[in-house]
């Protein structure tokens, strides 16, 4: 089994087919979307493929170390950042093909009008061992 991260982005990926921002959905559409996500996770729990998942708020703050004895430097929020992550799910599957298959199913979550969003999801494998210098530089 290998772990994969399925990333949902607020922006940065190609536009989904049903490209209506969630803040313009009805309460019923939001409920249907959340129900789909929960049902999907429950199905993966039953198959032993679900590890964890969370939705994230669009707000955030950048933080960095600023030297010994100094407080961290912060800046933000950066809601305009193109790679803003909306949420994630960690799965543990036998093959990359299964990870891609599940990401495709997750992409079909309903959105505006109850129609599938067809959103793009980023599929990223977890490292199974620390990268070598050659792997890190490519």
Largest sheet: 4 strands, antiparallel
Rough outline:
globular
Query: What's the pLDDT, averaged over the residues?
Result: 87
Question: How would you describe the oligomerization state of the chains in this entry?
Answer: single chain
Give the SSE order as H and E letters.
EHEEEEHEH
Low-confidence stretches: none
Question: What does this protein structure show overall?
Answer:
This protein has 138 residues and is α+β, with helices and mostly antiparallel strands. The chain has helices spanning 27-47, 96-106, 133-136, and strands at 2-9, 50-55, 62-64, 73-75, 85-93, 121-125. Strands 2-5-1-6 form a four-stranded antiparallel beta sheet, with helices on one face. A two-stranded antiparallel ribbon has the order 3-4. A hairpin with an 8-residue loop joins strand 3 (62-64) and strand 4 (73-75). The longest helix has 21 residues, at 27-47. The model has no long low-confidence stretch (mean pLDDT 87).
Which key terms come to mind for this protein?
4-stranded antiparallel beta sheet, 3 helices, 6 strands, single chain, alpha+beta, 138 residues, two-stranded antiparallel sheet
Protein topology:
Elements: E1 2-9, H1 27-47, E2 50-55, E3 62-64, E4 73-75, E5 85-93, H2 96-106, E6 121-125, H3 133-136
Antiparallel strand pairs: 1-5, 1-6, 2-5, 3-4
Short overview:
The protein has helices spanning about 25-45, 95-105, 135, and strands at about 1-10, 50-55, 60-65, 75, 85-95, 120-125. By secondary structure, the protein is α+β, with helices and mostly antiparallel strands.
